[in-house]
Amino acid sequence: MAPSADHANPGLSAERLARIRSLPTAELHLHIEGTLEPDMVFELAERNGVSVPFESLEDLSSRYRFHDLQSFLNLYYECMSVLRTRDDFRALGERYLQRAHEQGVRHVEIFFDAQAHTVRGVEAEDVLDGLLDALRAAEQKGITGGLILSFLRDRPVQEAMDTLESLAHRTDDLLAVGLDSAEVGYPPELFVPVFARAKELGLHRVSHAGEEGPPSYVWDALDLLGAERIDHGVRALEDPELIDRLRRERVPLTVCPFSNVRLAVVSDLAQHPIAELLDQGILATVNSDDPAYFGGHLGDNLAGLVEAFGLHDETLERLARNSVEASFASERRKAELNALIDHWVESVAATR
Ligand code: HPA
Ligand code: ZN
Hints:
single chain, alpha/beta, TIM Barrel, eight-stranded parallel sheet, 8 strands, 49% helix, binds hypoxanthine, binds zinc ion
């Protein structure tokens, strides 16, 4: 079965679920291509005359079973081949922002995999402009955000550099660079020159590390790439010295619980290390990663954790405050987001 957000948290009452989903948060780990839902795959395939190797919605839905990161990436890249035009990226962004808004997200920093599109002949600027169209429209609804150009670490380093240079005149429209795709065997050190150039261009830097890769990749993302946040980072728990550093330097981890379960990084939600990370004083945040593939959006992930761990409202508040602190939003926007969280805390207290 394809994941369905409506059925993500069957164990909670409708009121509790609504309350969790109304918590104002910042989403910091979200791949826009991972929000492409099955019906849109078929709609865009038809509109753009792209053939896809799936016979029907049922056939596609039956393939949402993964045993590791690579088994997911294979389907993820296959599905996104239907995205071709600026309009497609605008529509994709709009649908995600609508869903995210319904689940409390009020600020979002969105990854896009430019190379996955340019290798198919799509212009990087069409991707960028379509997503910016969607973000500008969402501002009317009270969501702010920006875009993170994410390099595919399993493709040539020179291709990443060329992609960055091709958008060097658009750095005002970019927030940061990131590093994603197959992790093991593609260590951060490969991308030192690309991240150095991104720094020169005035961009923030983040990196996936410690999802399937070892703690040494987290050290190297920090020390060699200058990463300001670590995406995933759950394997940092294997290295007490690293945990100590992350805590002392308040390095944020953008943790994705549903993703970690679906990709077998952890065996089930009840075994998820988020509680341990919080106990250790780590600036951990909760995010959805690829919500169309992993069973839910940010609010669903929070609700899943409430079900699995019985998280208290104070912990939900802390996760929301962490997401604001870890974001690249302006100080002024951070203050606004914290005021929204204050309001949520007051309204929750009033219903007790
Ligand atoms: N890890 C690495 N690359 C990705 C992911 C992820 O979780 N999602 C989309 N691309
Ligand atoms: Zn990711």
